[in-house]
Amino acid sequence: MKSSHILLLLSLASTGAAAFELGAPKNNNTDNLVWTGHLSPDTDSVTSALIAAHIYGGTAVVPEGINPESQFVLDYCQIAAPKPLNDFSQKAVGLVDFNQKTQLHPTIDESSIVAIVDHHAIGGAPVNMTQVTPIDIRAWGSAATILADRAESLDIDLPAHLACTTLAGILSDTVVFQSSTTTEYDRYYAKELAKEAGIVDLKAFGQKMLEAKSDLSHISAAEILTMDYKNFSYGGKKVGIGVAETLTAQQLLDRRNEFVAAMISYKETQKLDHLFFAVIDTKNKRANLLWIDDIDAAIAAKAFTGQPKQGWLVLDGVTSRKRQIGPAIQGAIEGKK
């Protein structure tokens, strides 16, 4: 498939060292190279690190522990989990699935970043590099899709277990093609990867992933709050947005008091200006939004039109933090809404 996309190469300032090349892996120095996603890694972040390491060399790592869905995927695809890395100093670092300082492991020096492959907007507080750094950002449904395209364009074969995990990254971030962020490229590469992985029914595989993600009954509210969580900088304010995608939304909605207590504690300890949490009902395609104080209530009132129910704001048709929840909150905080 010939993709029509814009490859954004940001050459900020030359340091004299050879720049990393996303289009010519053999030219790169991979000594001490690691590939990592954002804090609170999700399945797209984990699987993108794996395929990036396969294409470009280096080692896939995670900055924190992985979630139940990601563990299910790794077990299903029969591949070892990337090792957690607590200290990124002395490492050359490739970033996948994010570009924000607020989501960067605190030990990563921005001068050590050699490449970024992402599908999110460059807004808020992007990493600030003084070295020549290739950045491939496309408005596709997942970073895994972009890297699958990279592998195809470079004529790099993926073993079945990596085809499997890369497929999972696409299915996870597009919510099995239900998300508004889904593109024709996501659908195309999902089908191709399913063939390579020997997965006959990719939607059935995606359903199993959703079920693995949905079983949160044994996990505390504090853990769920930060399991799929990102910090943003909007209008100079530190904003946290956590989401939990689930087929069994009512189980989480019934735990509202637990989430309120967890959010009060987290907002104070992290010194956040704003904090929101959404239970994404993937079965009924809607978000249930929660906040804990009048300041955030005012932001939510500007950002959304929804129906309150049992202490949650119900947002029909809202399923994406990247495309819907985050931009709406950003617009409200920055006075653009």
Description of the structure:
Residues 1-19 form the signal peptide. The longest helix is centred in the first third of the chain and has 14 residues, at 43-56. The chain has helices at 43-56, 68-77, 143-153, 160-173, 184-197, 202-214, 221-227, 249-253, 256-269, 294-303, 321-333; strands spanning 9-11, 33-36, 59-62, 83-84, 92-96, 113-118, 132-137, 229-234, 237-246, 274-281, 286-290, 307-309, 312-316. The chain has 11 helices and 13 strands. It folds into 2 domains: 9-209, inorganic pyrophosphatase (n-terminal core) (Alpha-Beta Complex); 221-333, Roll (Diaminopimelate Epimerase, Chain A, domain 1), CATH 3.10.310.
What is the topological layout?
Blueprint lengths: L8 E3 L21 E4 L6 H14 L2 E4 L5 H10 L5 E2 L7 E5 L16 E6 L13 E6 L5 H11 L6 H14 L10 H14 L4 H13 L6 H7 L1 E6 L2 E10 L2 H5 L2 H14 L4 E8 L4 E5 L3 H10 L3 E3 L2 E5 L4 H13 L4
Parallel strand pairs: 2-3, 2-5, 3-4, 5-6, 6-7, 9-10
Antiparallel strand pairs: 1-7, 8-9, 10-11, 11-13, 12-13
Low-confidence stretches: 2-16
Oligomer: single chain
CATH superfamily of the largest domain: inorganic pyrophosphatase (n-terminal core)
Rounded Rg: 19 Å
Domain DHHA2: 206-333
GO molecular function, one term: metal ion binding
Cofactor: Mn(2+)
Keywords: Hydrolase, Manganese, Metal-binding, Signal
Key phrases:
337 residues; alpha/beta; inorganic pyrophosphatase (n-terminal core); Diaminopimelate Epimerase, Chain A, domain 1; seven-stranded mixed β-sheet; six-stranded mixed β-sheet; 11 helices; 13 strands; 20% strand; globular
